[in-house]
């Protein structure tokens, strides 16, 4: 179920005794899913380790060692990774590996509604934050600020390191739900930059074509590292205005 939520298809549990670091194989289909011509093969390793322990870099090397060129890897663990391991996964762009540690795994499960049931809890600080954000939309005379006229929805959204590594911009579910079914492109104003038409993925869960936006806004640093951030999305009839709130 977890891999399906990540939009992977045809998930297979490997039965080879000497799989050299592979627990599962899967496929993500590309544009239209036409006969697999645009598909990507994924090789997944999963390790259930004690939280707080660190996965040896050799385990991640083993996964890459059995990945063909052009494929992608995912290493999932309940433990964590060292800085050296995180640097290692970026050394071969032809065989990228996504690292999911224990904290990221829990956050991802919450985001994808896997195994969590939520009970509303009142928070004065959260309500005050919402009020402060709402005040940004209203002028002193009580009228709506001109730049916010036509806003249909406002969403706070985290852009994670994995999103940046995968060069995708995940759509908030509330926006996905109101996008017309035939929407293939969305005009996006990212952090004050000129508008850009981004492609809506087939599964309608993310936008692609964001690499230059991430680089120009500093989410991909000059040294190649990633800078996750919180953003505010304003959804208009004809565009989405996204601004970085904090890193």
Task: Walk me through this protein's architecture.
By secondary structure, the chain is an alpha+beta fold. It has two domains: 110 residues, Trna Endonuclease, Chain: A, domain 1, CATH 3.40.1350; 123 residues, Beta Barrel (At1g16640 B3 domain). 23% of the residues lie in helices and 27% in strands. The protein has eight helices and twelve strands. The strands form two sheets. The protein has a seven-stranded mixed β-sheet. Strands 1-2-3-4-5 form a five-stranded mixed β-sheet. Strand 4, helix 3 and strand 5 form a beta-alpha-beta unit. The radius of gyration is 20 Å and the shape is globular.
Strand content: 25-35%
Determine the structural class based on helices, strands and strand pairing. Answer: alpha+beta
Q: Enumerate the strands of the largest sheet in spatial order, edge to edge or round the barrel.
A: 6-11-12-8-9-10-7
- The total count of helices amounts to 8
**CATH fold call of the largest domain:** At1g16640 B3 domain
The ordered H/E elements are: HEEEHEHEHHEHEHEEEHEE
Biggest sheet overview: 7 strands, mixed
Distance between the termini: 31 Å
Query: How many β-strand stretches?
Result: 12
Task: Summarize this structure as a short list of keywords or feature phrases.
alpha+beta; 2 domains; 247 residues; seven-stranded mixed beta sheet; five-stranded mixed beta sheet; Trna Endonuclease, Chain: A, domain 1; globular; At1g16640 B3 domain
